[in-house]
Every structure is written in C-alpha cells, then in structure tokens.
Fold this protein.
Amino acid sequence: MKIYNTMTGMKEAFVPLQPGKVGMYACGVTVYDYCHVGHARSAIVFDVISRYLRYKGFQTTFVRNFTDIDDKIIRRANETGATWDAVAAQFIEEYYRDMDALGIARADIEPKATDHIAEMIEVIRTLIAKGHAYAVREGDNESVYFAVDTFAEYGKLSKKDLEDLRAGARVGVDERKKSPMDFALWKASKAGEPWWESPWGKGRPGWHIECTAMSMRHLGETIDIHGGGADLIFPHHENEIAQSEAFSGKPFARYWVHNGFITIDKEKMSKSLGNFFTIREILKSYDAEVIRLFVLSSHYRSPIEFSQDQLRDAEASLDRYYSTIARIEEFIAVSAGAAPKMQPAAAAALKNVMERFQPQFVEAMDDDFNTAIAVGHLFEMIRELNRFLDTKPSGAEAAGLLADAREMLRSVGAVLNLFGRTPHQWNVDLLRAKQIALTEEVILRKIQERRVARENRDWAAADALRQELDAAGILLEDKKDGTGWRVKIV
RNA sequence: GGCGACGUACCCAAGUGGUAAGGGAGAGGUCUGCAAAACCUUUAUUCAGCGGUUCGAAUCCGCUCGUCGCCUCCA
C-alpha cells in the first residue's frame, strides 16, 4: 500500500510503526458554524481511509478532534448572546446531524480540546523547560509562545524557509514575540473571555497545541497518519510538528495526508469568500449518497469543482447502479427457477470481470486511496452485469453468478460506504430528495389504473397516466411481470 | 515577491516510461403498444504550447502560456 506523504512529496510504501496497527489522527472542525461541502469532503476522505485500513486488516485507531475553544467561537457567542460552550455544544450537534446523514462513521475517539487542558499545560511546561518556549507578561497573566528559532527543522512540512516567512510576514508583528513567526501556545485571557487556571495565570490554549496534546494522549508520541485539509499544512501542521517534536524528540507523524479543496468557479470554497454551500443546503435537493459519490469520484488530493452539473452526474451514476441492482434482483426472483440457460461467452465474460474485480479494487485503493479508479472499476462491473442480463439467461447457475456479483459490489461498496440501500429504498428516498409531491402509495395506485387501461388496450388512457406521472418526475417501466416506477433523474 | 500544485474529448475524470479506464451529454441502431432501462456503434492518431532525453513520453527534463492554492483564520 502506498500513501502520498506531504512531508516527502512522494508516494511511499506504507509501513506502520507497529506491524498490523495504525494510529491515525485527522484534524476536525472548529465548532462555531454549520459545516459546508468542503468539510464534508475532508470527513468523507478520512472516513474512507479509515474504513479501507480496516478492510486491509489493520487494527486501526482513528482520532478526530473538535476544536471547541477558539476566537471564532468566542466571537459567535458574543454575537448571539450565548455562552461559548453552548455555541460549541450546539455546533457539535449540528456537525453530527450532517455527518451522520453523509454516512461518516464516528471516529474511535472524538476528543474535545477543552477536555485536554491539563495535557496541553504539561506539554507547554516542558517546552519552556527545554528552552523552546517563553512566557510574556500581559496584564495579570502571561502568554506563552513557541520560539520557532529553536526548532531547526521548522518549515520542513510546508517547504517554507524561515527567512522568507519573516520577510513576507503579512500580519502585524506582535511586539511581545521574540520572532515574528513565533506562535502562541497559551493565550493570556482578556476581559470577558473564557479562561482556565494555569502556571501562567488565567488563560486559554492556542490553536495548534490541542492537536499535539490530544494526538499524544490518545495515540502516543509518534503516530502513523496525520491528516486534514491542505489548508492546514501551514501554519497548523507545521506548528504541530515543531511543538510536538521539540517536546518529545521523536517524529510526530510518519505520513502526512492532506485532502484537496472543493472549488466554485475554480476558487476555493471558503467562509471568507462567501462562496460556500452548507451540507444542509445541498441535502435539501440531493440525496446524501450523491455527495459521497461526487467526492469519491475524484482522487482525494485533486481539487474538485462543485456544481449542480457535477452533483447531477453523481446522481445519474448512482441511479445507474441501483437500476442494475434492481434488474439483478428481479432476475433472481423471476428467472432463477426457469430452465438453465446461459450463453457460454457471456458467462465467461462476466466471470472474468468478477474475478478481477476485488483485486483491482484493492490495487486502486492501495495506490494512495485512489477512489476514482475504484469507482471506475465498479461501473465496469455494472456494465458487464447489464451485458450479461441482456443475453437473457435463466436458471439457478446464472442467478448464483449474479448474486455473487451483487455481494461483491456490496462488500466493496461498504468500504466506500456507498451502495448500501435497496433500489426500492433509493427511489423512495429520491422522492423526498427531489421534493416530489407524490407518495409511493399514490404512484402504485396510478400504475394499477394504468394496468387496467392497458389490459383494455386503451392506449390513450394508459399514455395519459404515464404522462401525468412523468410530469411529476416519475418514470414508469413496463416489464414482463408488471410495471415498475423510478424517479426521473434530471 | 517566495513556495507548491494543476492544465487529458462537449462536460466530469483515471492514467507517472510501453502505445489513451470509467461516467455523463450528443448522434445512429437493437428492444418496446407507446415509453423507460439496458446493450451496440459513434465522439482525443492524441494528452496547454515549444524544445530535449529515450527504441519508445500524456507520463522524465527545460522553457513558455494559463489556472489555482499556501505564505493570515480556513477542511
């Protein structure tokens, strides 16, 4: 298995610290607002990575944190009149609502920054003792900064040169810092801000220190995989490395994994640009699985352009998948008991694709979690299954083959957490996602009416019913043993 | 200004040395009472451009053009 490591800029063979075990930490969200599609991408990517690691047999411990204390949370609290911890609690809840909908599994450990203040203080103390950090008085309390000059390898992750950073510093230089690049480990609390008691008086943690404290507490001083969005490379992850390695003297993470952005009109989707869609907004008109497939159709490091067209593409692909599964189920129900019949060439072609399917999936995922290729193979299988069905086979052997194929798709789909529903459920859920004002009951009644009309060879009445449903967004499919319905895509 | 990505058909997208996956859209066909789905055919002698290395390059190197990201909070 190979993983692209941001640290080296290369795909590397994945060798965990302890054979068979993986410790992985992904930076989660700061809980001050609803999540947007960019957050969804990151969550989906690391969800799939952890699922795949388990699929490969690694005993995986996955930690994803919540940043529940920070300037933005405090600001939000001040704006809304709520307390800072109420804001955090609310948006953790909202986060779970969105992520649960998207099929993001809970991480094994989901720590909160504020539950690890003691660990952070311990790390900061040691860093001061080792000469890597210094306290600066601010009123009655002190702030503590990490002295970047004491960590010779600073910049190794983001490939930045300390001199360039200084020269290009765009932020107003804080007079109290020894060097402009020094960053806060601990912030003296200002009036009205939340605070914790510390050796430096009343204060609160800086942003980066929480990940060091939580990662070490839950996974040890060196972990296998540390991930997050590409925008965290600098300064967040760079600073984590500096403080963590200065503290422990050991490598902090062996593989650094960063997902690419979601863009709109080629620009990064972000709060500050205002060009974002919340997960919740998208879920008003698309099924959650559509978002998942949209994300997993590209490699996790590539930028993906967000648009309605893209979502519709993903929706059409999913519909194709579920339609094929529906065909298979129908075949098994209807034709399995019939006289055995299979065209040898068609059966051989299907068997061939089936044999290659799982190894190809593993090969794709082993190559830096290439879900785009994996999804490609999945749809090749779909095409082959349809081809086979078109040869009109029958009998138990054909049914067995199709059942095996369906099971393969299901088990591989589970790693991506896709394709988990029945075709019927997919269509029922689409009624809601597409806000179609018909219930399944009504649709079935219309189909019944149309059946009667067709039996009477009243084609005009039958077609009128078809058109009526079509106008509402429902397609009817006449088959040998009856008429089925599906939600029209696009 | 510094650093780093990326540029593959109408659209999306994989492909990091061996002769262009897959999906969508379009056109034609098979099937169908009409449809739909599905399948078949068709859409890049070519991978932003120009040079170079090589028996061989979309893949490696150089330059040019274009787009984006990070350098400040950001998934």
Notes: The CA atoms of residues 3 and 368 of chain A lie 4 Å apart. The radius of gyration of chain A is 27 Å. DSSP finds 16 helices and 16 strands in chain A. The first strand of chain A starts at residue 2 and ends at 5.
